[in-house]
Write a structure and sequence with these properties.
By secondary structure, the chain is mainly alpha-helical. Helix content is 70%, strand content 0%.
């Protein structure tokens, strides 16, 4: 998947703050939903109407926008920074789990919450386990995603390793090219020999000519 242009630092920080805020908010909403589901199941006569109505409000007004914001800001941060979307396993796993959680929120939990609110308002009983399981699973999932975001485990994907090897090869080729002599210029050894040759020719192999100082050898100082 192609990368977006790198985000400027202020923009990246703004998206990071938004992503962390909505992600933690998603975790808090899941905890609230689980609490309401437990209350409705334990006290069906006293708390069921309040609990299930509140769950439907959370699902309709908060859960879906927060889930979509978390998914969108995460995509922008991955594609607009050095992490990439498919370069690191933790980013790739987090993306697919967030996408799955968003889909389950839209197509599974929200309809169940609305149905439970309608049933309890009409005086009909609501199966207690129907709304207990989804918040428990989502709370565990979002806690796991939070840990993954902090620890960043599992290293690079196959694509990430391929891109890393490509960059390493280009860098090595660039260093090798910068170390080559320029076309038409003398090589280092030839330049050194040319600078020494006049002195050797003037002495005919018999040491420095009269009046010339002796050169200092690196070995003798």
């Amino acid at each position: 998947m192609s990368q977006l242009p790198r985000l400027p630092r202020p923009t990246r920080r703004a998206f990071l703050v938004a992503h962390v805020t909505v992600s933690v908010g998603w975790l808090g909403i899941s905890l609230c939903l689980l609490t309401l589901a437990i209350a409705g199941a334990l006290e069906p006569d006293d708390l069921a109407l309040t609990a299930y109505t509140a769950m439907a409000l959370f699902a309709d007004w908060l859960l879906l926008p927060v889930a979509l914001l978390s998914l969108t800001t995460g995509l922008v941060l991955s594609l607009g920074t050095q992490w990439g979307l498919a370069r690191h396993r933790w980013v790739w796993v987090k993306f697919w789990l967030t996408l799955a959680a968003t889909g389950l929120t839209v197509f599974a939990f929200k309809p169940d919450a609305d149905e439970a609110a309608t049933l309890v308002a009409a005086g009909d009983p609501v199966p207690s386990t129907d709304l207990l399981f989804p918040p428990a699973v989502s709370l565990s999932l979002y806690a796991f995603l939070t840990a993954v975001s902090v620890l960043k485990p599992w290293g690079l994907t196959r694509r990430g390793r391929r891109l890393r090897d490509t960059r390493t090869g280009r860098a090595a080729a660039g260093k090798a090219a910068s170390g080559r002599p320029r076309a038409g210029g003398p090589r280092m050894g030839e330049a050194a020999a040319a600078s020494v040759r006049p002195v050797a020719d003037s002495t005919d192999g018999e040491g420095p000519a009269e009046g010339q100082p002796r050169s200092h050898s690196p070995a003798t100082g």
